[in-house]
Design a protein that fits this description.
The complex is a heterodimer of chains A (about 190) and B (about 200).
Chain A: H1 3-16, H2 20-42, H3 45-62, H4 72-91, H5 111-118, H6 121-128, H7 133-143, H8 149-156, H9 160-182
Chain B: H1 14-18, H2 24-36, H3 38-57, H4 65-87, H5 93-114, H6 117-121, E1 136-140, H7 146-156, E2 158-162, E3 169-174, H8 179-191, E4 196-201
Antiparallel strand pairs in B: 1-3, 1-4, 2-3
Organism (chain B): Sedimenticola thiotaurini
Protein name (chain B): Zinc-finger domain-containing protein
């Protein structure tokens, strides 16, 4: 166990004992991560702030039950994942799981031509914003949180292969989008 | 054909090669793929590096910060207050319990006064006084429960006909009061040492 893990686990023990200062330290450490994670998925700063609050309240209540089988960050972001899903369900959103079945002809897209279009930032933004939630979530966890694919799988409670496949298809969809909308040669 | 999850495809590992979380073996696999993959593989890497740069650059600048902490702190205090309220004994509980105990004591006293030994002694059947017939005398262990006693008496087909005496001795009547059965039941009761402290013939 590395020193960061050790100190975070010690923080959780203090929280389990009702130490409010320890909770504040954890809040300061995780607030941007949880908030950004929720905002990415929910697209609404009020809902994201609610999720942030709900997650840390749950940590406050259940820190004593953390058994150290996973990293503290994986445990906390896993709670955030569940809170986000709860909120999406409240909104009546049904599209928070699995891949877009309409991913036709990805294989016909040239990554070289897509890369050329991606050099224009607005074009890449356009296509990344059109990804499904599940894909955006994996991209966020890999590229912003810099998490390994096993950690992402633990947070999302899915097989590691699913994480890799989601990321792979996200990239393929971006390629297809770039070529469809922006490539001068639609070949 | 799309790569499947049941085998390690280096192209699928590129995002984690970029974020530096692969094992050395996996990294080597990706590097070999990139070295051999030519322009296509290089473009895959570059596109995902751009995706990473975009994703990192487009994070919200402001977060709830201090306001979020104050809100969390307020909710934590509310939880603590609720818990204190739940754990605190209710002010009315003690006098209510005292009143309940008083009612029980009064009821017991009233019932006791309705069944006085003197009253019983004044009653006799027309055929004359019936003396309960007993076969054994027993004394229960102080810690024996009603359930243990009932179970044991049912097993030996006996009933209590008198007692307790001042010494805590009860008298038992057996359904089958043959001498052989009396000995057998006596042995059986003595064996139940957790319920019976002492057994003797009448």
């Amino acid at each position: 166990m590395d020193s960061e893990q050790h100190s975070e686990q010690a923080l959780l023990k203090r929280i389990a004992d009702g130490d409010e200062q320890a909770l504040q330290a954890l809040y300061e450490s995780y607030e941007p991560r949880i908030y950004r994670f929720a905002l990415k998925r929910l697209g609404n700063s009020f809902d994201a702030a609610d999720v942030l609050n709900d997650v840390l309240l749950q940590v406050w209540r259940s820190a004593g039950r953390f058994q150290g089988r996973s990293k503290v960050s994986t445990w906390i972001l896993g709670i955030a994942h569940h809170k986000v899903i709860d909120r999406l369900r409240q909104r009546g959103r049904a599209d928070f799981e699995e891949l877009d079945p309409q991913m036709a002809n990805e294989d016909e897209v040239s990554v070289v031509r897509a890369l050329s279009a991606a050099q224009e930032l607005e074009q890449l933004v356009f296509c990344m914003d059109r990804l499904k939630d599940g894909h955006r979530q994996v991209i966020h966890l890999a590229f912003v949180e810099s998490l390994s694919y096993p950690d992402i799988a633990a947070i999302l409670e899915c097989p590691e292969g699913t994480v890799k496949t989601r990321m792979f298809h996200a990239r393929k969809q971006i390629q297809a989008c770039l070529q469809r909308h922006f490539s001068t040669d639609h070949g | 054909m799309h790569p499947t999850a049941d085998r390690q495809d280096p192209a699928e590992l590129i995002p984690w090669y970029i974020n530096g979380t692969l094992t050395p073996e996996e990294s080597a696999m990706v590097e070999a793929y990139l070295a051999q993959g030519g322009e296509e593989a290089a473009a895959e890497l570059k596109l995902q590096q751009l995706m990473q740069a975009h994703e990192k650059a487009h994070q919200p600048g402001s977060t709830p910060g201090e306001f979020g902490w104050k809100r969390l702190q307020r909710d934590v205090h509310r939880i603590a207050q609720k818990q204190q309220t739940a754990n605190k004994p209710m002010a009315w509980l003690r006098p209510a319990m005292a009143a309940a105990v008083a009612v029980i004591v009064i009821q017991a006293a009233l019932l006791g006064s309705l069944w006085l030994p003197d009253q019983e002694s004044g009653l006799q059947p027309l055929s004359g006084r019936v003396t309960p017939s007993a076969d054994l005398q027993i004394k229960f262990q102080p810690q024996a429960t009603e359930l243990q006693i009932r179970t044991l008496l049912n097993q030996v087909d006996a009933r209590l006909v008198d007692g307790p005496s001042a010494a805590g001795i009860y008298r038992l009547s057996l359904a089958n009061n043959s001498a052989a059965n009396q000995r057998a039941v006596s042995d059986q009761l003595q064996a139940a040492a957790d319920v019976i402290e002492h057994v003797a013939a009448e």
